[in-house]
Amino acid sequence: MQTTRTTADRPRGRDTLHLLAGAGAVAAGAGLVLALTHSGSPLRGPLTLFFLLAAPGAAFAAALRGLDPGARLLVSAAGAVCVVMLVAQGMLATHHWSADGGVVAVGVLTMGAFLLQLAVRTRSRKVH
What we know:
Protein name: Integral membrane protein
Transmembrane segments: 16-36, 48-67, 74-95, 101-120
Keywords: Membrane, Transmembrane, Transmembrane helix
Shape: globular
């Protein structure tokens, strides 16, 4: 006989964590869309800033799975700020500054970091 799990059997903390992660992903995606469509919404600035910090921060946090949560949060936040600052400095140094370009560059770097982690994890599973 197969047992079924009810919602009372699951730990509540994990559900809350997944809900917050999903809400953060939706907010970051909305910030990306609002920034690239030049929306006149008052939420454009805060949500774009959230995307610019949350996207690279999530990539760093995913790469640092071995650290304890406090150190992981601190390092991923510092790394996110560094990525945004390096993109801004690179664009200013080459005289190609644009807000859209900065958002796209941070998004592309973040996507590249996630894909690199996926490739490394897939390869390490095949080796072991």
